[in-house]
Amino acid sequence: MIGREEIKKVLPHREPFLLIDEIIEVEEGKSATAVWHVKEDFFAFRGHFPGNPVLPGVLMVEALAQAGAYAILLDEKFRGKLALFGGIDGVKFRGLVRPGDDLVLEAELTRISSLGGKAKARASVNGKTICEGEIMFAFARE
Fold first, then answer.
1. Which residue segment(s) compose the domain that 103 sits in?
2. Cα–Cα distance for residue pair 78/73, rounded to 1 Å
3. Residues 105, 92: contact at Cβ < 8 Å?
4. Over 70: is that where the pLDDT of 20 sits?
5. What is the spatial distance between Cα 125 and Cα 30, in angstroms, rounded to a whole number?
6. Is 48 a catalytic residue?
7. Left if phi > 0, otherwise alpha if psi is -120 to 50, otherwise beta: which for 12?
8. To 5 degrees, how large is the angle CA 127–CA 36–CA 76?
9. Active-site residue (options: 30, 48, 98, 120)
10. What's the domain count of the chain?
11. pLDDT tens digits for 112-128?
C-alpha cells in the first residue's frame, strides 16, 4: 500500500483537493487502483446536502482522474508534468457515496502520448459500481 505522503511525491494535488488516500495496486504507465476513505468532515458535505450528505459526482470523477494521473506520472518520461483534465466520455453514475464509505477507484490507461491520453475508469463501494466511464487528460504546455 502507498500512503498519502508517498502519493504527494508524484501528484501535485494538496489538501483539501488531494482526494485519494492510498494506492493499493499500480502498474507504472498502465493502471492504478486507489482508495478514498470518504470522511464525515469532508468539506463538500456541509452544503451537498445538509442532513442527507451525498458525495458530488464531479468529485468522484476528479478522484478517478487522480488515480489515473498517479499511474501516468510514475512513468519517468512524464514525471513532474502537470496532467490536466481533458474531458469525460460516457460517464454514468449508478449509486450514492456517503460519509464513511471507502470509494475504490480504478483507472486503466487505454491511450497515452506526449500530449495526453485516455483511461477507462470505475469507482465502486463494497464491490458495487457507483461511477464508470472514460476520462481524458492533457499535459500542460510549459
1. 4-139
2. 5
3. no
4. yes
5. 23
6. yes
7. alpha
8. 105
9. 48
10. 1
11. 999 999 999 999 999 99
